[in-house]
């Protein structure tokens, strides 16, 4: 009975990191969605770049370079988020291992949790950079905004 109680207590300790994993999963879903949208736009612009010349071509080349940079930034955020999730998984494994083998791993668990949080903070900051890049690069050109229809 004592073993069951210890396992139940360990499961209770592991619940918070598991909820954290769910949050990281939701964040990864958002990042993947943004990456997919950027890739879709890049594919459209890529085709247009090959069909244009002059100012329009230069504008599209500039846009595709920014899209490429955004893809890199989102990929970085995804990488950091996955690394954070792996660290959280290791926290759960250490919690159960410490209980199972009756070994004190408090410092290792705390250190891994800190690493997981630092990775997630960095992932969120990277994501914020991508949002800022998107907001600075996505705008409606003046010639479109103030276009007058031919009479």
Q: What would you say this structure looks like, in words?
A:
It is built from 4 helices and no strands. It has helices at residues 2-49, 54-101, 106-137, 142-145.
User: What is the total tally of β strands?
Assistant: 0
Structural class: mainly alpha
The helix content is over 70%
Give the SSE string.
Answer: HHHH
Reported for the largest beta sheet, the result is: none
Radius of gyration: 23 Å
The 3D shape can be described as: rod-shaped
Q: How large is the count of helical segments?
A: 4
Strand residue percentage? under 5%
Seen as an oligomer or otherwise, the chain set is: single chain
- Overall residue-averaged pLDDT value: 91
pLDDT under 50 segments (min length 5)? Answer: none
Kindly, what is the distance between the CA atoms of the first and last residues, rounded to a whole number of angstroms?
87 Å
Features:
151 residues; 87% helix; rod-shaped
The gist of it:
The chain is mainly α and 151 residues long.
Strand-helix topology:
Layout: H1 2-49, H2 54-101, H3 106-137, H4 142-145
Helix pairs in contact: 1-2, 2-3
């Amino acid at each position: 009975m004592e073993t069951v109680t210890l396992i139940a207590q360990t499961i209770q300790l592991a619940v918070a990191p598991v909820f954290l994993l769910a949050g990281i999963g939701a964040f990864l879903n958002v990042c993947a969605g943004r990456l997919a949208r950027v890739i879709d736009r890049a594919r459209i612009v890529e085709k247009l770049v090959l069909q244009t010349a002059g100012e329009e071509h230069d504008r599209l080349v500039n846009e595709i370079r920014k899209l490429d940079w955004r893809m890199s930034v989102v990929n970085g955020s995804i990488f950091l988020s996955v690394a954070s999730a792996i660290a959280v998984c290791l926290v759960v494994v250490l919690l159960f291992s410490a209980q199972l083998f009756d070994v004190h791993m408090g410092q290792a668990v705390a250190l891994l949790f800190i690493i997981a949080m630092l990775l997630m903070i960095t992932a969120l900051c990277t994501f914020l950079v991508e949002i800022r890049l998107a907001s600075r690069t996505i705008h409606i050109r003046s010639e479109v905004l103030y276009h007058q229809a031919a009479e």
